[in-house]
Inverse folding.
């Protein structure tokens, strides 16, 4: 397993729309393993392939107390969104920044596992927020996009001072 480099905002590669996975092979298995390794090393509770410059629809999540864990989703799709919840979020691609974001409170996600088996899962709370956040990465979006222009500019200024 390899720890991959995480791209940081405002890197344009984070804006790439991921393509669907079509081959469930050893390469995909390595990608998933590397993503877990990279996420735990950071440390973080979720990671999208986009963040390590791989533009395939793959996300990994481990919210700690949630069961079952850890989770990986290939070609994830939100098939149900319910309610609204506000939670403070952070992102490994936007280090040191935490902002409150509104998202659906409970979700149903449909995806495949690394062997190509389709499954559906319901989630709420932190896990639901985390899955929505990671799926957005696959669309080339970041949680800071939802903030005001003023806040977004301030965040980019802060990140440029981190020199990473
Ligand atoms: Ni993120």
């Amino acid at each position: 397993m390899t720890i991959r480099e995480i791209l940081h905002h405002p890197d344009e590669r984070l804006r790439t729309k991921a393509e669907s996975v079509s081959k469930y092979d050893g390469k995909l298995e390595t990608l998933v393993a590397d993503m877990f390794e990279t996420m735990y090393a950071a440390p973080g509770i979720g990671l999208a392939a986009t963040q390590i410059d791989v533009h395939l629809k793959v996300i990994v999540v481990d919210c700690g107390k949630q069961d079952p864990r850890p989770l990986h989703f290939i070609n994830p799709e939100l098939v149900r969104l319910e309610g609204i919840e506000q939670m403070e979020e952070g992102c490994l691609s936007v280090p040191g920044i935490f902002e409150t974001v509104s998202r659906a409170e409970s979700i149903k996600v449909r995806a495949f596992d690394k062997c190509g088996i389709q499954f559906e899962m319901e989630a709420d709370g932190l896990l639901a927020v985390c899955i929505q956040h990671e799926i957005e990465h696959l669309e080339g979006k970041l949680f800071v996009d939802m903030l005001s222009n003023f806040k977004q500019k301030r965040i980019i200024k802060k990140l440029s001072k981190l020199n990473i």
In short: Helices lie at 26-41, 125-138, 149-162. The radius of gyration is 15 Å. The longest strand covers residues 71-82.
